[in-house]
Amino acid sequence: MTEVVVGIDVGGTNTKFGFVDKVGHCYREESILTNAQEPPELFASRVAEAIKGEFTSLRSTHSMIGIGIGAPNANYYRGTVESPPNLSWKGVVDVVGLFKKHIPLPVVITNDANAAALGEGMFGAARGMKDYIVITLGTGVGSGLVANGQLIYGSDGFAGELGHTIVDVNGRWCGCGRRGCLEQYASAGGICRTVFELLAVRREDSELRSISFDELTSIMITEAALRGDVIAREAFEVTGRILGLKLAEAVAHTSPEAIVLFGGLAHAGDLIFEPTHRYMEQYMLNIFRNKVKLVPSGLAEGNTAVLGAAALIWHELTRRG
Amino acid sequence: MTEVVVGIDVGGTNTKFGFVDKVGHCYREESILTNAQEPPELFASRVAEAIKGEFTSLRSTHSMIGIGIGAPNANYYRGTVESPPNLSWKGVVDVVGLFKKHIPLPVVITNDANAAALGEGMFGAARGMKDYIVITLGTGVGSGLVANGQLIYGSDGFAGELGHTIVDVNGRWCGCGRRGCLEQYASAGGICRTVFELLAVRREDSELRSISFDELTSIMITEAALRGDVIAREAFEVTGRILGLKLAEAVAHTSPEAIVLFGGLAHAGDLIFEPTHRYMEQYMLNIFRNKVKLVPSGLAEGNTAVLGAAALIWHELTRRG
Question: Which of B141, B152, B243, B247 to probe the A interface (max A CBs under 10 A)?
């Protein structure tokens, strides 16, 4: 019997799950609708039924030993999700408790970025490392910090909010109510804002001048930059400078062996990696220079979040012995 | 027999040591000249002799079980000190090896801020906490970060350099060769620089207008502020704003239960704690607000560094079982 865990990734639209063994092989990844309007009890029961259904074909050869869940606003210590931005769940929801009711196995939950960090450490770009940071550059900017081989949850379970470190106290308004958060500069939406700032300030021609704020996406900026568009290229330079500065600060905190960039904006490859790395080195204290690797995710595209959630429970089961 | 460890604090002028038991009682603290010009071999041999000499009177009732050393530029992993700023030791010195030659016991070394952090956790203001940060506001700004009950050394042993996170990329020149490091704002010298900036910009009378840059000390600023001097009070406000912002950033990294402020500038009490705490709350992401304690050192004045070094080796001996 091969031992597998279930990795569950709760998204605003779809919830994905898969059965993952200890070396990161993912069996039967499935996706079901999250139904964001549905009460969490119903959601947990539907997902649990789907898991049980999918597992029937594996039952003769595999044993299911735990469940890991990645979800927005999840709290590892309490096993809860609190007022998630994309779901209509109210207040504090005991997600771990709900799942245990249906599947009596060890269940753990954490936010998506922390799950991604454990996934990179177990199956991806940070394999074998004890000190590293994973930054997700998607709709938002998330992060998971690992030190001494352990994820840093902090006193309340909410550590690793690098997306809400402040770039400029008088900067862009953030959804969190403050100004100048990194998330407003280094996310997919952030680089769009940077383009609009540049279009206002600079005089160069740009194909991006014909696109409205509502229409512009980070993929359009990447494509324009690859075609040599000056504004698009400069937007990556600006983004890399800001992200590089904040990564240098993160290095001063935990001195990681590597920083893994993950998610939408990281797909721009060298366009974002080159300036980010250059500025990170420039803004870094001399003792850290030329040591910290800046690398893309090492997890297979598509099921990264499921692998991350699976790594979370594998990590937990290993720790508990 | 009561078990004790030796805590050694290597300073530029004096080296202090003491015998410390597991509850932080310090027996026979002594101080000898460091003789910064002397080769490290001679230094280690002198200190070891002094330790043995002092221990004779304790020998019948106490057993010595390890040595902890706090020193500038110390590397925990390698047991070395590298080009310390205040000593003429050249290159990389194997301090742990030198001490073991004279006293065959477990020996560990780390920098002063990390030792202070472990001291606060074992004997001081962070007793019982698993996640906290200690910031030393002295000639420089040092820090030690503890997460999951362990000091964060990072991949190279140099984690926790919050004094060299950047406040302003175009800011004050720092001894490290870069610009705008926190150390140039929140140290004893930093607040003096802030006073000179304010004297240039503002028109208010101030007793500090009669003091030269070379003469001004942070203690003079504290005394002037206590007498109601507007510039001196504003200097603490500015320092608190900058330090508060950087502490909010540190919270976003590791979400500590408390931040302990330690060293020269922390002695200004409410003058520095009040604005620092106010701005830290203002610049902090909502989920962290009204949770993080900002507290002064809980270690007895005078032998804080010795207690820190002792905590380092106690921590190590406990971990090794």
Answer: B152
Distance CA A249, CA B246 (A): 10
Cα–Cα distances in angstroms (integers) from residue B60 to residues B18, B56, B64, B106, in the given order: 17, 8, 11, 21
Q: Residue A154 and residue B250: Cβ atoms within 8 Å?
A: no
**Coil, strand or helix: which one is A28?**
strand
Residues of B whose CB is below 8 A from A280: none
Q: Which positions ≥6 away from B69 have C-beta within 8 Å?
A: B8, B9, B10, B95, B96, B99, B107, B108, B109, B110, B309, B312
Question: Do B182 and B207 fall into the same domain?
Answer: yes
| B258 and B143 housed in the same domain | yes
On whether both B315 and B280 belong to a single domain, the answer is no
Residues A103 and A204 both lie in one domain: no
pTM attached to this predicted model: 0.93
**Both A141 and A284 in a single domain?**
yes
A125, A260 in Cβ contact below 8 A?
yes
Contacts of B257 in chain A (CB under 8 A): 155
Domain match, B62 and B111 both: yes
- Domain extent, residue B307, equals 2-119+301-319
Residue found under tokens 């230094």: B43
Question: ipTM of this model?
Answer: 0.93
CATH number at residue B174: 3.30.420.40
Same domain flag for B29 and B45: yes
Give mean pLDDT, residues A125-139: 95
DSSP A149-167: TEE--TTTS----GGGSBS
User: Which residue did the predictor score with more confidence, A99 or B304?
Assistant: A99
CA dihedral over A85, A88, A91, A93, signed as positive or negative: negative
For chain A, say whether B128 makes contact (Cβ under 8 Å): no
B47 and B177 in a single domain? The answer is no
Is B285 at the interface with chain A, CB within 8 A?
Answer: yes
Task: Determine the average pLDDT of the residues in B106-111.
Answer: 96
* Whole-number pLDDT of residue A301: 73
